[in-house]
Design brief:
The protein has one domain (2-245). The chain is built from eight helices and no strands. By secondary structure, it is mainly α. Helix content is 77%, strand content 0%.
Length: 256
Amino acid sequence: MKALIHNLFLFACAACIPAAIFSMLGWRRLRNVIYLVAVSLMLASTAVRIAYNWPLMCLYQEPYLISLLLLLLPIHLYVKGDISSAIASGTAAVLVSFFSLLFPGDIYVSFVKTNSIFAHLFSLFSSFARAAYFCSAAISIRILLSRTNSGAGPSTADLGRTTNLIIAGFALHTLGMFCGGIWAYCGWGTPIQWESHLLLGMAGVWFYYAWFLHLHLAGNYSRRTMLCASFAGGVLTFLFAFLPDTGVFNFQGIIQ
């Protein structure tokens, strides 16, 4: 079962390579078909991973769940007609997926305290929030680079693309923190586990995006500055709320 979970994820990552090549060649139909195959394989890997220990939860599964959600977000953007943002977020999805593949940190042995719906909700909501933050950072850097090359400044619509993702991510992040607090209280008798790097890292990222939304509502900073802050938030999310859940480089363990 463990080999099946890993190999499905591996094949999903491998399918992203021809999808990226077809995208650069302009073969949209082939790109879309191969991309949907990659999403289907990663969805299957995630479903088997969750069912493996249900109702318990596999530890450090969030990088793989984030990879799936990042692959799903470009589909939403593509359907809306925002092709450039879909390509940017799809690029971020491929990079995060390969990083999760090469630096595995998942542990298939769970423990009884994860037998709580709040544990699963914390994992889902916090993963969706991080995926939204990564997606907003990818779109922000695309806009900044494209506007710099064209000589024009970012538009209000450009900032809206990233801000909407951050608002959605922040809302789910807040729900996830509440679920994490309830889970910690039910399992350990305290709403905050100070020994948990994940809870502390997620709390730090939450405060950063609370500050970002405060500046956005104040309206005292330029759109370029806010896009730079959005990209910086993606970097902070990677360092403090994603990287601790991954492991050491393991190229030899790719094929199982």
